[in-house]
Amino acid sequence: MATQExxxxxVAEHNTKKDLFVVIHxxxxxxxxxxxxxxGGEEVLLDVGGQDATEAFEDVGHSDxxxxxxxxxxxxxxxxxxxxxxxxxxxxxxxxxxDTSGAGMGTALYAFVFVGGLAAYFGYQYLQNQQNKA
Length: 134
What we know:
Number of strands: 5
Shape: rod-shaped
Structural class: alpha+beta
Mean pLDDT: 83
Strand content: 15-25%
Helix content: 40-55%
Low-confidence stretches: 89-93
Radius of gyration: 27 Å
Distance between the termini: 93 Å
Order of helices and strands: EHEEEHHHEH
């Protein structure tokens, strides 16, 4: 099956609720059937309809599930011509996954400091109470 190529002008003509194309990383997606299901609301898609939505898509930080859903609506590739708008974010600009392997250590440190603070407070109160009795 040959991949269909769209020009930026072709995509720009599809910008209504009943006919909505978006471009993400130079791939064209027909989101017409998805517009009512979009978790962020239809306005979000209508704002970028017929345009390059790469930056808006990446700024939101869509999940892997959202990216898989997007592939269901793949229609073809964008054939850029001189003078066409260029995306502000490129495919290589996608942020790598955060390394959260040491995240638990920060929480444990805060818990240790909190418990230590409580122990110091109650120890001080106990010593003050003992001193007042004497």
